[in-house]
């Protein structure tokens, strides 16, 4: 490992060439605790590396605080913070490397552009509440939330700088006589009872941050920190200028009594439905240039590159069973998608070649885009299957139009059914999938219609009111659960019942996934107390039982590997905490703990590797071989605010979509981002969606769908030029 060497003109020679293995490229800024440098990982990932000041490195108490900062940042590393990549608190000059987050701080944004609009403020409120929820769930109290510790990249707000945060169970206490924090954003108890500070203090700070975002000033304003402290403890907050619809909620956040403040979950509930209508208030990402140092507070590093980009170190009920079932179905089939995502309007005719896309030197591939034009439409849903002649085909569904078959080579519409009833704007549009040689559409969750793939002739339709969930495609069989708890297999070609049976031990089961290699589908049902899960392997064609086993924990089947069933395991807060590998032959069970808790990740099994993609963009690869030792192979922070289910392709590539219409490709061997398409928003706005359609892989084509109502194809062999 290269040594730290002082080569610059900074005090104490604090411009080293390396921090650990990372070569430091530029100084981004300095604060009371240290200097932050721009660096790159060996894979080329841009990092912000914080190196502490030499005088602090000799202070045992400071080292303890820095170790706690690293631990806290690692505990909360995820979608709402700057994820920790590496750190060495024991180095001669302790350092921590986090993902470089491009985007201004909230304080810089307000200073440059003035107070936020009501829509922008509402979006910020929701994003910061969600961030605090995850920080608190990780057992951490930030204690220094303020505008300079909030970054605004295009993926949503990020909370940074955990320099004075502490875990709930921390033994490290505030020094007597020292004020730790930033007075305008500190809660009354931080002045009065600093050893009793809890998560509600962060909610108070959130209220003060929102006042600043709405007005350009704080709720308690004075040039003297002592007068501000008095106002925080004794005076009412000044909410003049805060939008009327948000003022009561902000006022509750600023209550003097911590017990009267809302929790982050209550804040998000008060904002429901969320506002995604605000135009993005984030400037276009630019390459960092030479850096300038800006003012930084004690305990906080607030830096900005010369072009304005900052960097900051950071950071079972039946209903529950149904939620897990829907997630598992999307992850495995990548076909059955929730409502609210379907475009409405007329097809654009033949697909048009995509402009401005570079092609490889030997490429015969021509990217295309087929728009589905109509007011109010949203993201289409697509699935792949046979065309009836053995040629691969693409089937898409869209609210207001219905179902159609597209030619995957050029996006041309081969046939369409324009009789499908139009879904509402809230998202009751049709959902499409393929089973065997039949394409079908679920209309508004009430009716299933099946079509011949060649001509698009309607073959049959059936009422779904008798079933609990959308049928699961299983080869040429559709698997469904009736409302009385019995299972049924339908012939995909005719809609006729192939078999119907009650499953011993199950009262209200759900299908989770189908494995084509064995012809088995997996049924699961959690116990009433959530302590165990009954799992049954069912033969899709006949309904026969291959095996049944009760396993400890709240589990959901996620995939298979080497004949073993892999299941995700959740805690009482519905967070995924581990994987369970069950091998039915020896009846052996292996449990693999996740390195951190994940919120509703979508899972894909790739041989002996399980890939877990969290809604907020965190991607984790785990080795699930028995006795493999360290389970984590790699992790990647994609900085995507909301993702679809991931889909595996050839050449060790993983694909998934983002809420802004981007399609992303990741190398599953090394955990690196290979490329991504440009955003495709409708009129520059995000639309509300409870989930996103997954992309479709068809040979060399990767087909994505976007909020602008388009279906598009890019070259799977050349993601770097998407």
UniProtKB/TrEMBL annotation:
Keywords: ATP-binding, Kinase, Nucleotide-binding, Transferase. CDD domains: STKc_PknB_like. Residues 22-275 form the Protein kinase domain. PROSITE patterns: PROTEIN_KINASE_ATP, PROTEIN_KINASE_DOM, PROTEIN_KINASE_ST. It comes from the Bacteria. ATP binds at residue 50. This is PQQ-binding-like beta-propeller repeat protein. The lineage of its organism: Bacteria, Bacillati, Actinomycetota, Actinomycetes, Kitasatosporales.
